[in-house]
Amino acid sequence: MHKLPRTSFLIAGLIAFALGWFPTAASSEPVTIVALGDSLTAGFGLGPGEGFTEQLERELRDAGIDAVVVNAGVSGDTTSGGLARLDWSVGEDADAVIVELGGNDALRGISPEATRANLEAIITGLKDRGVAVLLAGMMAPPNMGNSYGDAFNPIFSDLAREHDVALYPFFLDGVAARADLNLADGIHPNAEGVAIIVESILPHVQAMVERIQAERQRAGSG
After folding, report:
1. What's the domain count of the chain?
2. Catalytic site includes residue 39
3. Which residue among the candidates 62, 128, 180, 185 is catalytic per the annotation?
């Protein structure tokens, strides 16, 4: 069997580099996802490894996706609180943000117009930085009345459509009002409830990560 001259390997390598066959450093780096939220993100009442960000990161890695999920949840936070801390909660290395805010606004009866304005400012601020956004929807509790719910509930889908960002319609889908999936307070999911949330939101997160990775590839080969 004849050996190819070293110059042939060199030429082949140069061609491969020119055609973008070699992965760039940027495309091989982990995708950093920040979860900007309230107690549902922070992991209120849960033990180590049981919270939303920890379970989500494990599921992403089990699916072969190299991602880091940063917990930027603050218990009791409202949309105004999330907006106020946006710049320091979402670092420069963030590729994407899951925005999980609004539940405390509804519990406190904050004006839906204020909630909408705060979320819109968060979304536009992130998009201006080139950060991908996945907006997690929330629903007003029934005790707030129909008129409040009619004004609050459409906020998330409206903003996602208006600003062309990804939407997960209801963060507590499949978990809300189920005693077996929540802590004793009936509001915060237990570890099993979080697992259901993660399983449901995972395809949306995966799709967002795939878009980010595709953009990296295009940038690296451009």
Report:
1. 1
2. yes
3. 185
Catalytic residue among 77, 95, 105, 188: 188
- Global confidence as pTM: 0.88
What residue has token string 């409202």? 78
96 falls within a domain: yes
Q: Domain range holding 139?
A: 28-221
Residues near 155 by beta carbon (within 8 Å), at least 6 away in sequence:
102, 112, 115, 116, 119
Cβ within 8 Å of residue 170, ≥6 positions away: 137, 138, 139, 176
Q: What is the CATH number of the domain that holds 145?
A: 3.40.50.1110
* pLDDT in 10s for each residue of the chain, 222 residues: 444 455 444 444 444 444 444 444 445 799 999 999 999 999 999 999 999 999 999 999 999 999 999 999 999 999 999 999 999 999 999 999 999 999 999 999 999 999 999 999 999 999 999 999 999 999 999 999 999 999 999 999 999 999 999 999 999 999 999 999 999 999 999 999 999 999 999 999 999 999 999 999 998 875
Q: Which of 38, 39, 77, 89 is catalytic?
A: 39
Query: What backbone phi and psi angles, to 5 degrees, belong to 31?
Result: -85, 125
